[in-house]
Request: fold
Amino acid sequence: QVQLQQWGAGLLKPSETLSLTCAIYGGSFSDNYWSYIRQPPGKGLEWIGEIHHSGATNYNPSLKSRVTISMDTSKNQFSLKLTSMTAADTAVYFCGRNGFYSIDEWGQGTLVTVSS
Amino acid sequence: EIVLTQSPGTLSLSPGERATLSCRASQTVNNIYFAWYRQAPGQAPRLLIYATSTRATGIPDRFSGSGSGTDFTLTISRLEPEDFAVYYCQQYGPSPMYTFGQGTKLEIK
Reply:
């Protein structure tokens, strides 16, 4: 069974860049698309973007100018960078595996707080 | 962008009762693009239903999904303690894009 383990800095200052990495265990990166999703405290879910093993990416238009999702197939990992962070970007960030037009496996989540 | 509106915002029921959760889309959604999730406090969401009515791996048959067009429903036939959580609907499209509803909180009455 696929498991996703994610990590990254939990406290950032305004204008800094968020960097998160998600490792895939028990599965192959080449089998699916892989996504990042975020959830502000007490609020709903927002899809950030996805990457395919071919290198193809798709991003939420509302974040597209600040987001880069990349991959390291040799390590079975994919990563998120989100630039120019503000307090509005404070959220729990999840990585996930895309299933049939849905997210069928999720990482444990990483709380990222933006504060001066 | 397709907007999903879930109702009710909060649903208060007792264990063993039947729950009916609704999700309305601002535009027609293809049935294969529609899913439901359950999120327990402090946990990641878990996929329950995809393609409107197909249960995900390991999901018990007390969960069922239905609907078409702009109106979709998640039904839980007999509530178990672990079912008291927040539920999200989700749709895919029109461009490569996932959007979620704002959530329905199912609480113990």
Observations:
- Chain B has a mean pLDDT of 97.
- Chain B is about 0% helix and 50% strand.
- The radius of gyration of chain B is 13 Å.
